[in-house]
Amino acid sequence: MNQEKTAIRHFTIHHDGVTIPVSRGGRGRPLVLCPGLNTTQADLSELIEALRRDHDVVTFDLRGHGLAPAADRYTFDAFLGDLTAVMAELRSAAPVLVGYSLGADLAVRYAAEHPGTVAGLVLVDGANPVPEPFVTEDLLPQFRAMWEDLAAEQEAHRGTARQVLLTAQEILDLNLEIDGFRSGVLGRYRKIDRPVSMIMSTSMAGDIDEGHVRDFNRNWRAGVERLVREHPHITATWLDADHRLVFTHAGHIARLIRDFETD
Question: Structure pTM?
Answer without folding.
Answer: 0.96
